[in-house]
Amino acid sequence: MGTARLGINIDHVATVRNARGENYPSPLKAALLSQKYGADSITIHLREDRRHIVDQDLVEIRKKLKIPLNLEMAPTKQMLKIALKYKPAFVCVVPEKRKEITTEGGLNLKKNSNFLKKVIYELKRKKIRTSLFIEPSPKSVFNANKLGAECIEIHTGKICNLINKRKKYSKEFNKILNSVKYANNLGIEVHAGHGITFESAKILSKIKGIEEFNIGHFIIGESIFIGIKNCIKTFKKIIK
Ligand code: PXP
Question: The pTM is what?
Answer without folding.
Answer: 0.96
